[in-house]
Every structure is written in structure tokens, then in C-alpha cells.
TrEMBL record, chains A, B:
Organism of derivation: Amborella trichopoda
Protein name stated in the entry: Uncharacterized protein
Superkingdom of origin organism: Eukaryota
Pfam families noted in UniProt: Methyltransf_7
Classification via Gene3D superfamilies: Methyltransferase, alpha-helical capping domain, Vaccinia Virus protein VP39
Length: 363, 363
């Protein structure tokens, strides 16, 4: 699977990411104070005339502009407090080639209006869409002061190599991701790919950022050092169970399932810290785990929670599944997934973990 | 009509701009040597490490990257000739909010690949989409060295004011644009709007461009000082005739037609020269009229030329017509338009005029 070309978050429709991103929106709400603090620290000593801000993995939907509104508000607040004339803002929205930028751009004018209502003195705010993988250079050297990325970095640049044995037979049989039953070489292959991707991400961004710039990142992580721990692999195991059902009914070919692995990894804190330290472009200013149970973000009085959760997952995963299996199977798959998820009482769902990081670009 | 929100060139489909822009493509081919010369003049004295290039009104379709390939090739050629390391290129593609940027972005990777095949030493080429009207500021100050705009500037920012009399009754009855039968206040109102828009365009770009930068523009113009001359109003008159037919059949309401005027103006050379001289930000390096007859760009052995020409016109006009009249009328309208155009033998079609300009940003 050519992840760069396949993966994207759909901008419209029942099963689109745009309409099923409450979980990510919940993270963004929690990130606001962290973003504000990062901006404050960044602007504590100098006040650039022009500030470059990038949102990497902006997707499309109601969340796209949420962090930017916080960032712009924080920048203007600090400049006003210091009685400085407001800077020129250059905002770059990045996502993969297939992202629905048309939806994003249609929302630009009202974003700009809402900013201008609050910040009358902000004369120059320029917004551009920058398509491409953030595992490649996407912006000019020394052009960014603040980089934000929410729920992007647990996506790998590709499905890891090393998921087949020497004879070419799949090692992660019946599973779509790191799972409790995966042989140890599978999580190793995933970790190895994450290490390569995350280090590359840091290296590329360090070229694009000015010294003393800040990077505010949030992405899915796991609590324990064991990548197969039950709490983290819960949704994967349930999805694999839904796939197993379709295999048993002859709807999905077993070999096709064995060769499907999602390009996604949830690192633990130590893995992330080690990579940042080793790469040396950034120092860690803040590293915070957010643990959340479903009740933190599910709508209250939700009846059919399985259907709701399956729909949320579908928003992120559907394009890859369709690419590999064809679109005929997705309705049946997510129907079965709903059923399986419904069997687990809400109280028994594992918590989910996100990391929030603020990194400072070294001199 | 809120032109900024309504006007856009469709990226896909039988009647899309993308599939009906042979005429504009033909202009672009003629522009190549002019672009190359402008780049050469711009780079005759200094060799910036980072070069900003904007294509304003990039639309979507096969033409979008055509001028950029010429520009990038010319820049690299000159740097190589002078044995300088190739610069960083920042490319900005601009069009209105409703433009199909998704189509443009899907074509990015192969554009970048084709550039990298030819220019291996070009390490940094960044491309961004910049949605918004070029009658507003869209890019940071002093960020551009070369601005290109093809077939954009004959579109006005809005339908001119002053197309109704004091009692609010429409002056340009039965016509969709400046026409031979328009009262003189109509072309005056159009000219006035063009003067405002073109001067504003120059002023805004001068803020975004570095001194000594070049602007390469092409847009539709007219030969004579009379804005109602037959040669220029030919297609408008024929379209009005098609509308008149729909009015006579009760398909289009007469009042609705009287209140429809297209936000488009074809200036003559003197009008353009005067505005550039008066605004003072740019000097004229080159001003060239391109006159073309149909045979220059129509496919050879075309049978049903009316249908072909109506389809080309539809690519550019359909969205505005649908916005004003509803989509029910467009098939009938362009069917009738085809018939009317077919009645004119190919040999009797007037020539069309485009201007090609190279402007140099003053110090």
C-alpha cells in the first residue's frame, strides 16, 4: 500500500473523518492551554515581524481550524500585552495529497472573518494549503516559528517491512496491526518503522523551523513498554474479530487479510523521549500523557455505543480498508464490528492514551 | 452575485473548464518565449537563494502546470549557465475559494517528478495552494520574484455598479455583457470597474513582490477604443440571442435576464497602459497583442464547430449562469447557442485578441 497516496481523511459524508472526529476534537480542547503556553514561551524574548505557523496533518472538518484559532489568539494576546504592532501571520495547512482541501478552503473565509472580528489590528494573515507527506520536506528552510500536529504522528509513512518470514509468508496472520497474538518480530518491525519515521520527522522540521521555535504535537501512545498490552490493542483485536467473521463467511479471503497491516504505531513515552534525545534538534519542554475513558468524550445517554464507536473508527480507517479489500466489504465489516463492540459494556472499555508534547528547536 | 464565491473553473466533467481549455492552452504555448525572456531579464543581475513564484488564477486542468514548467526550466537554465547552485523555489498556486484545488493537488506529485527528472540538482521546490481573490492581498510582503497570471484579469471582482437607471431599472436589457446595443453608460460602468480592479491588482502585487521582480500577464483585450465594437462582442451577442430564444419560449424570465451581467471586461491597449502608468508600481517591459483566428487552435476537420465553441464557452461561464438562472436552463441554453454559432461559417468568425504583458516592479 502506497500510504502517501492512499491515506486521507474524508471531508464529507456519513462515514467521513470530518463528521466522525469528536475524539480528536476532544484532544484539541485539552491542548489549548498547552498551545497557549508554548506560544507564550516562544514569544517571551523576541517578537518577529512575520510568524510562520504550520498545522501538519490538518485533515478536513470542524477540527481543522480549532488549534489555529487558539494559536492566532495567543500570538495576538502576547503582542498586544507587550504593546507591539501585530505581526504578519503566515499559516500553512498541510495534509496528504488526497486530503479534501476543497472542504478546508471553503471554510477559510469564515475562519479569516472570525479572526478579524477578534483581532482588528491583525492586518496580514495569509493562509496556504501545502499538500504532501510530513515525512518529506514540505516548507522552505527557516520559515516556521510554530508547528502544530494533532493525531498525525501515529500514522507511519508505510506499512513496516519485516512482516513476512524468509519464505515471504505473513507473520501477522489474521491480525491487522500489532496484536496480543503477534509474534515478537511484528511489534519489532512496527517499532523500527516508527523510529525511522519519527526521527526523520524531527530532522525535516528542524530544517524548516527557526531556532527557538516550538513544536506542539499530540498523538496516540501506549502506557506500558509492552507493545502488545491488552489496553492498547483492544480496538485492533475487536476489528480482527470482525474480519475473522467475514473470513468464516467467505466474504474476505484469508490470505488477503493476512497481508493487510495498518501503517500505525502507538509508541510508549520512553520510545519517544529516546528518539528526540538521540536526534538532538529539539529539547523537550513538556511531555504529558492524557488518559481518557469513553465517558470523557462520548455523547451522554448513548444507546448503541458499538455503532457509534465503529463509525468513529471507520472515519479514519475506511479508505485503507477499501483500498486493500474493495468497497463491497466495508458495510458488513463495520456492522459486525459494531456488534462486537456492543458486547463490551461501556465500563469495561480500556482507557485511551494520547501524548501531548512541546518541543523547542535547539540553536 | 458574489463573484468571489460563485466564479470558479470546474476541475472535472464534460463541461468543466479543465476539459475545455484548449484556447487558454494555446495562449500559454505562445507565452513560453515571453516567460523565458522575463525570467532571463529578472535574473540578469542577481541570483536569489530563494525565489518566490506565484500563478494567479491557476484554475485546474492540464494548463495549470504548463507555465510553471517553463518558469522552473528557465530559472534552472540561467543558474546553471552562470554556474550558480540552484535556488530554493517557492511556488504558490492561487485561485478563488471554489476552485477545484483537489484536482490541482492530485497533479502535484507528477509535476514535481517531471521537474526533478529534468533538474536533478533542484533540491528544494515547495508548492502551496493559496485560495482567495487576487483582488485582495494573498501573499506575504516582498515574497515574490515572479508573478504569472493567464486569462484571469479580464474577470472583474464584481458585476459593475451603475447598470441600472435612477429608478433601479436595468440599462443593459436583454444583454449579458457589453453589447453593440448597450447604452453608453453600460460600457462606462464596465470600464470604471476594470480601472478600479486592475489598479488594485497592481497595488496589491507591488506589496507582495520584491523590487525588480517581473509580472507576466495574459488576458483578453480588444483592438479598438470602442468597447462595443462588433469583433469583440461577437460571442456575447450570440449568447444573448440564445437567451432571447429561451425568453420567447417562456423558459427564462425576461426580468431575470435583464438583471444578469457578466463580471468580465476586455480592455483596449491604451486603457491598460494608462492604468499601469498612473499606478506607478510597475514599468512596462513588453506589451504584445496576440490576434488569433479559430483555425489557430480549433482541432482540424472539426464538423460541428458551433457545438465545440459552445462547450468551450460553457467551461468558463456555466457556474455563473447556473448561479443566476438555475441549472435547469443550461442544457437548453447551450444547445441553442451551438445552433446559433453553427450558422456562422468558420471563415466569418472574428479574430480574438489577447494581450501579453511583462511588467517590471519599480524600485
Amino acid at each position: 500500500m502506497d500510504v502517501e497516496k492512499v491515506l486521507h481523511m474524508k471531508g464529507e459524508g456519513t462515514y467521513s473523518y470530518a463528521d466522525n472526529s469528536e475524539f480528536q476534537g476532544n484532544t484539541l480542547n485539552k491542548m489549548n492551554s498547552i498551545i497557549e503556553e508554548a506560544v507564550m514561551n516562544m514569544l517571551s524574548t523576541n517578537y518577529p515581524e512575520s510568524i510562520g505557523i504550520a498545522d501538519l496533518g490538518c485533515a478536513s472538518g470542524p477540527n481543522t481550524f480549532s488549534a489555529l484559532i487558539t494559536i492566532v489568539g495567543a500570538v495576538c494576546h502576547i503582542f498586544r500585552k507587550e504593546s507591539k504592532p501585530l505581526p504578519e501571520l503566515r499559516i500553512y495547512l498541510n495534509d496528504l495529497w488526497g486530503n479534501d482541501f476543497n472542504s478546508v478552503f471553503k471554510a477559510f473565509p469564515s475562519f479569516l472573518e472570525s479572526i478579524r472580528e477578534k483581532e482588528e489590528a491583525l492586518e496580514s494573515c495569509f493562509v496556504a494549503g501545502v499538500p504532501g507527506s510530513f515525512y518529506q520536506r514540505i516548507l522552505p528552510a527557516n520559515s516556521l516559528h510554530l508547528v502544530h500536529s494533532s493525531h498525525g504522528l501515529h500514522w507511519l509513512s508505510k506499512v513496516p517491512e519485516g512482516l513476512n518470514d524468509k519464505a515471504g509468508l505473513p507473520l501477522n496472520k489474521g491480525k491487522t496491526h500489532v496484536s496480543q497474538s503477534s509474534p515478537s518480530s511484528v511489534p519489532q518491525a512496527y517499532l523500527h518503522q516508527f523510529q525511522k519515521d519519527f526521527s526523520l520527522f524531527l530532522k525535516l522540521r528542524s530544517k524548516e523551523m527557526v531556532s527557538d521555535g516550538r513544536m506542539v504535537l499530540s498523538f496516540a501512545g501506549r502506557k506500558t513498554s509492552d507493545p502488545c498490552e491488552k489496553e492498547d490493542t483492544f480496538y485492533t483485536e475487536q476489528l480482527s474479530e470482525a474480519f475473522a467473521f467475514l473470513v468464516s463467511k467467505g466474504v474476505v479471503d484469508e490470505g488477503k487479510l493476512d497481508s493487510f497491516n495498518m501503517p500505525r504505531y502507538h509508541p510508549c513515552e520512553d520510545e519517544v523521549r529516546e528518539l528526540i534525545d538521540r536526534e538532538q534538534s529539539f529539547t523537550i519542554e513538556r511531555f504529558e500523557p492524557f488518559e481518557r475513558c469513553l465517558q470523557d468524550w462520548l455523547p451522554p445517554d448513548i444507546g448503541d455505543h458499538g455503532r457509534y464507536l465503529a463509525k468513529v473508527q471507520r472515519g479514519g480507517l475506511e479508505v485503507m480498508i477499501i483500498h486493500h479489500f474493495g468497497k463491497e466489504i466495508v458495510d458488513d465489516l463495520f456492522e459486525k464490528y459494531s456488534e462486537i463492540l456492543n458486547k463490551v459494556p461501556l465500563i469495561d472499555y480500556p482507557k485511551r492514551l494520547d501524548f501531548a508534547l512541546v518541543l523547542r528547536k535547539s540553536d
